[in-house]
Amino acid sequence: MLKGKHIILGVTGSIAAYKAAVLCRLFVSAGAEVRVVMTPLAKQFVTPLTMATLAKHPVLVEFFNPENGEWNSHVSLGEWADCMVIAPATANTLAKMACGVADNLLLTTYLSAKCHVAVAPAMDLDMYAHAATQRNLAQLRRDGVYVIEPEQGELASGLVGKGRMAEPAHIVKEVDAFLGSETLAGRRFVVTAGATIEAIDPVRYISNHSTGKMGYAVAAELAARGASVTLVSGRTALAVPEGVDRVDVVSAEEMYNAAVEAFAEADGAVMCAAVADYTPVTVADEKIKKGDADMSIPLRRTKDIAAELGRVKGGRLLVGFALETDSGAANAREKLERKNLDFIVLNSLRDAGAGFGCDTNVVSLIDAVSCVELPLMSKREVAARIVDRMEKLLN
Ligand code: C5P
Predict the structure, then answer these.
(1) Residue 219: its pLDDT value, please?
(2) CA distances (Å), 117 to each of 5, 224, 290, 299, in order?
(3) Ligand 1 atom closest to residue 303's alpha carbon, by position in its atom list
(4) Whole-prediction pTM value?
(5) Domains of the chain, first to last
(6) What is the pLDDT of residues 146-177, one digit of tens each?
(7) Phi–psi pair at 36, nearest 5 degrees
(8) Which of 68, 134, 225, 253 has the fewest CB atoms within 10 Å, counting from its CB?
(9) Residues with catalytic annotation?
(10) Given the CA of residue 252, which atom of ligand 1 is nearest to it?
(11) Ligand 1 centroid vs 192 CA: distance in angstroms?
(12) Cβ(305) to ligand 1 under 6 A?
């Protein structure tokens, strides 16, 4: 998959920079075109001559050449690349990336890059475990950066722990996997996400705690694999993932209409939205005045979008979500059947790190015959597992 791919290899000032030479060589021998960008400090650890010879191109370090004023354009470099891999990535560079600091060519290139970005952290175990580094890595994951986890082992300091940069062969494998991942090119999917809002009057409404993060992660993952994605989105504060076409809706009724329309052209749908089950029978034109007496609001059932898509799906793929506070697996299976889903993702609300607003989730993938319990992972990783399963079913 790396053949003909354009890779920017970013090298920062870590002892592990010597492994960047091997990494560069592996990328080139896999058929990739490599441009190396180094931070000024990285030059102390591995020479530009070594890197340039292996990459078969001059190494870029400074914004411009002081001799002749030639400008190193981070913008065109960012546009040229299919992928930017920063290996090794020091705690310092990760922190700057997380904050958007742009004080060297590697960082401006990162900020300009429209391609996949992966980082392979390398540092001492305490630096890696430090709350600040973990916070920065979490931020970078949220920004869509793929983190190639460091390994456990002996470190340059002589200490033993997690912080050793992943081995070059492993980095190549991971980059190959996510670059070769346009496996859904030509496919079209609908994803519903976020909370719907059911108006009571011009001021009040019924809604729920969904933030849309899980659905947005699924949409991003499908798009990253080359699929066309229509994201039918209720209220959320999230930005539209790259390559995704978003349709904003407010109520369950609007979501129903938008999802049914988009599904007509689709190969499948993933129903992540937290759709209100009830909506007020009437919406008051004016703000309802309070009185001394209690009041009740008559509610009627909304339409079940997943069930409707399940009814018309034919051979197409339909994935649902279930959020249960009791008898999770049994209820999820009942929904699987009733809504004619191919599989259902059961969310846990009980586990730490799962549920509304978290960047992580704990889920089980349930179909008619199996139940796969996944460990705590980022919502993007959960999305990847869901899409892996969808791909298997499609093929
Ligand atoms: O029945 P329940 O709401 O628990 O089912 C959850 C699944 O059904 C989720 O995939 C959700 O997005 C979908 N759903 C829907 N339309 C509704 C209610 C739920 O698409 N009105």
Answers:
(1) 97
(2) 14, 12, 54, 48
(3) 21
(4) 0.63
(5) 6-178 (3.40.50.1950), 188-394 (3.40.50.10300)
(6) 899 999 888 888 888 889 999 999 999 989 87
(7) -100, 130
(8) 68
(9) 208
(10) 21
(11) 10
(12) yes
